[in-house]
């Protein structure tokens, strides 16, 4: 299958500007269908996280393919997705702060189902009080830390907190959720299957303990892109929440859950200066390429902030993007010669696509022989 990126290399497709992101719509649909089919075959629901694409048009594709609903991180993201037609939204982030709670309560009135998250007694109590004042009942899930050491109540405290939340009159505790990704016994791992099995077993056991106290836990939600399908295969959870699978990126190839051919996104820049043979400057810097991934550290061992692609469509291992300013990206050559010229377009694969998308006001999408500019509507939605 000839991709949009093949067309750019062959001179058959021209992007009007750089730095910019190009998305191949056919590859996106293939990624959506692949994961949806795999999860559904396990009798599990898919509730994809929109943090990767941040665009209602892609959420609609996921829902049309069979997703049970969507996942957001912030209320402002959920508002954008609701305006785009999403009716079943889980905000997988602690609902803390009256400004956030009030917006969530208003959103709940507008859509069919809104699920909120709690991981503390303080947060649950504030949400319950606000819901009571508004004359509303909020469906909530309890987040439990299973090893990522991010948000989530500690495992030794989840049972007590679950009982407390279940006793609140204006909150309806229907499920538990977690984010663990590639963590096994508290440490990073490259064993996706083992990490997924531990995640599913921990969550299932905790759900059974909560049920034994009389709390009617209906949903067990887990699984990111690296573990989503293997978690679903255990049959121990009711829902998985992968996000990055829709586009793919270099990180997923290192995490053994995507191949290079799955990656549906490219970053394009223009060479603006070649002061010396060993380095060249492109028009994308920290405003284009995310720096949230440390370089050279195991297990990813990323060689730069993006992966340059050669004229053959494969990674160019000679070029590295390791130094940036706001408007400048400095590419260096391991052999001392970049071979780049002023005015040349350069294709790169993002290391972490979610943060790369968030740096763009809009992206270009190629599908059905048409190039469209699509706004990244939920970009920067941090409330």
Short description:
The chain has 383 residues and is an alpha/beta fold. It has helices at residues 4-9, 25-40, 56-64, 75-83, 98-108, 121-134, 158-166, 192-212, 228-233, 250-254, 353-358; strands at residues 20-24, 45-46, 70-72, 88-94, 113-118, 138-143, 171-177, 183-184, 187-188, 219-222, 239-240, 265-276, 279-282, 306-309, 319-324, 329-333, 345-350, 362-367, 370-375.
Features:
alpha/beta, 19 strands, 2 domains, Lyase, Ornithine Decarboxylase, Chain A, domain 1, eight-stranded parallel beta sheet, 383 residues, 25% strand
Q: Topology of this structure?
A:
Elements: H1 4-9, E1 20-24, H2 25-40, E2 45-46, H3 56-64, E3 70-72, H4 75-83, E4 88-94, H5 98-108, E5 113-118, H6 121-134, E6 138-143, H7 158-166, E7 171-177, E8 183-184, E9 187-188, H8 192-212, E10 219-222, H9 228-233, E11 239-240, H10 250-254, E12 265-276, E13 279-282, E14 306-309, E15 319-324, E16 329-333, E17 345-350, H11 353-358, E18 362-367, E19 370-375
Parallel strand pairs: 1-18, 2-11, 3-4, 4-5, 5-6, 6-7, 7-10, 10-11
Antiparallel strand pairs: 1-12, 8-9, 12-13, 12-17, 13-16, 14-17, 15-16, 18-19
Written overview of the protein:
The protein has helices at 4-9, 25-40, 56-64, 75-83, 98-108, 121-134, 158-166, 192-212, 228-233, 250-254, 353-358, and strands spanning 20-24, 45-46, 70-72, 88-94, 113-118, 138-143, 171-177, 183-184, 187-188, 219-222, 239-240, 265-276, 279-282, 306-309, 319-324, 329-333, 345-350, 362-367, 370-375. With 383 residues, the protein is of the alpha/beta class. It has two domains: 4-21 and 258-375, D-serine dehydratase-like domain (Lyase, Ornithine Decarboxylase, Chain A, domain 1, Beta Barrel), CATH 2.40.37; 87-242, Alanine racemase (TIM Barrel, Alpha-Beta Barrel). Strand 12 (265-276) and strand 13 (279-282) form a beta hairpin. Helix 4 (75-83) packs parallel to helix 5 and helix 5 packs across helix 6 (121-134). The mean pLDDT is 97.
């Amino acid at each position: 299958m000839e991709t949009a990126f093949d067309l750019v290399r062959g001179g058959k497709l021209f992007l009007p500007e750089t730095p910019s992101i190009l998305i191949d719509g056919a590859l996106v649909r293939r990624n959506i269908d692949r994961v949806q089919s795999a999860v559904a075959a396990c009798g599990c629901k898919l509730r994809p996280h929109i943090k990767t694409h941040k665009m209602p048009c892609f959420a609609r594709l996921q829902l049309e393919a069979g997703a049970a609903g969507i996942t957001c991180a912030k209320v402002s993201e959920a508002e954008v997705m609701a305006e785009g037609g999403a009716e079943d939204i889980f905000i997988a982030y602690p609902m803390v702060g009256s400004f956030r709670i009030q917006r969530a309560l208003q959103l709940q009135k507008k859509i069919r189902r809104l699920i909120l998250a709690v991981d503390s007694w303080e947060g649950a109590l504030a949400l319950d009080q606000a819901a009571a004042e508004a004359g509303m009942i909020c469906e909530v899930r309890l987040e439990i830390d299973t090893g990522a050491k991010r948000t989530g109540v500690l495992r030794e405290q989840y049972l007590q907190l679950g009982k407390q939340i279940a006793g609140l009159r204006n909150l309806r505790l229907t499920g538990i959720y977690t984010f663990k990704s590639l963590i096994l016994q508290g440490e990073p791992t490259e064993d996706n299957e083992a990490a997924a099995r531990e995640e599913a077993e921990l969550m299932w056991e905790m759900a059974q303990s909560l049920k034994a106290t009389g709390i009617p836990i209906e949903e067990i939600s887990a699984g990111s892109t690296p573990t989503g399908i293997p978690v679903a295969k255990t049959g121990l959870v009711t829902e998985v929440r992968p996000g990055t699978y829709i586009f793919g990126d270099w990180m997923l190839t290192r995490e053994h859950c995507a191949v290079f051919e799955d990656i549906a996104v490219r970053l394009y820049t223009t060479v603006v200066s070649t002061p010396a043979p060993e380095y060249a400057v492109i028009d994308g810097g920290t405003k284009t390429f995310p720096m949230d991934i440390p370089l050279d550290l195991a297990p990813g061992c990323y060689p730069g902030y993006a992966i340059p692609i050669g004229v053959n469509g494969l990674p160019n291992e000679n070029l590295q993007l390791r130094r940036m300013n706001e408007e400048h990206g400095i590419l260096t050559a391991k052999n001392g010669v970049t071979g780049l010229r002023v005015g040349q377009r350069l294709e790169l694969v993002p290391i972490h696509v979610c943060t790369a998308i968030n740096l763009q006001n809009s992206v270009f999408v190629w599908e059905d022989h048409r190039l469209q500019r699509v706004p990244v509507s939920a970009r920067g939605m941090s409330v």
